[in-house]
Design brief:
This protein is mainly alpha-helical and about 250 residues long. The protein has helices spanning about 1-25, 30-55, 60-85, 90-105, 125-155, 165-170, 170-200, 205-230, 235-245. Helix 1 runs antiparallel to helix 4 (about 90-105), helix 5 runs antiparallel to helix 7 (about 170-200) and helix 5 (about 125-155) runs antiparallel to helix 9 (about 235-245). It starts with a helix and ends in a 7-residue tail after the last helix.
Length: about 250
């Protein structure tokens, strides 16, 4: 049953992306994208609620569940941030990322066919897992905004000022502002996750916690450099995108 929710969420996100691109081709705003992504969010909740009931804990066991939770977190932040900052096109760029995460999760073997109840859990472990992945959702959306900035920058340099994509992209300043706020939000959640990771009882290796600290330190260094020395919008966006892609390697240690 849970897989059907995930398949539905993936198809709905794909429709959101396709609908948005078709609107751009007609030089129209992608108003339907938000509704399709909202529907995908509901389907994601259905999957996570069933898995959470089976696990008796936050459904973050294995790469498959983590990817779905990350896709849900990305969708959540898009639904909140998009209307707040009037960045409607954010959904067109976010939808493909959600589809990829969930399509990978659907690969046979990545999701337990019969999820077992988690026996050894505690508040710190739950906080560490949930807040870390939620933080990644905000950082993922910051990376999406970074891609949008780079696309806008390229459109300006190549003088594609009449295309539907250019006309619907938000102003440069607005993109940079939303990117920085998403980084701060992601870092705040990641900080809570890392602190909880040190406080939770650990059995065995701590490789994933060390990797999480390295990711946190990398983003912290980026924010400090941006605030103290300044960076061009293009360089800042490039680093945000590359840093998120590289930081996904932390899941290899889970």
């Amino acid at each position: 049953m849970d897989r059907w929710f995930l398949i539905a969420a993936t198809l709905l996100a794909a429709i959101a992306g396709v609908t948005g691109m078709m609107s751009l081709r007609r030089n129209q705003r992608s108003r339907g994208t938000f509704l399709w992504m909202a529907a995908a969010f509901v389907a994601q909740l259905g999957f996570l609620s069933i898995r959470g009931e089976a696990r008796g804990a936050c459904p973050l066991v294995g790469i498959g569940e983590i990817l779905v939770f990350l896709a849900w977190s990305l969708t959540l932040f898009y639904l909140v941030v998009g209307p707040t900052y009037r960045i409607s096109l954010l959904g067109v760029f976010s939808a493909p990322v959600v589809v990829v995460f969930q399509a990978v999760a659907l690969i046979p073997g990545l999701l337990d066919a019969d999820p077992q109840r988690v026996v050894s859990t505690d508040a710190w472990r739950e906080t560490h897992s949930a807040m870390s992945v939620l933080g990644y959702g905000a950082l993922a959306l910051a990376a999406v905004a970074g891609v949008m900035f780079l696309v806008l920058d390229r459109q300006l340099k190549e003088q594609h000022l009449t295309s539907g994509l250019f006309r619907n992209l938000p102003p440069v300043r607005e993109l940079l502002t939303s990117m920085q706020r998403l980084l701060w939000l992601g870092m705040a959640m990641l900080t809570i996750g890392v602190v909880a990771g040190f406080l939770m009882p650990r059995e065995g290796g701590t490789a994933h916690l060390i990797a999480a600290v390295v990711v946190w330190a990398s983003y912290f260094a980026l924010i400090v450099i941006k605030q103290s020395r300044g960076m061009t919008g293009r360089r800042f966006s490039t680093v945000v995108v590359l840093l998120f892609v590289i930081s996904l390697s932390v899941f290899a240690f889970i």
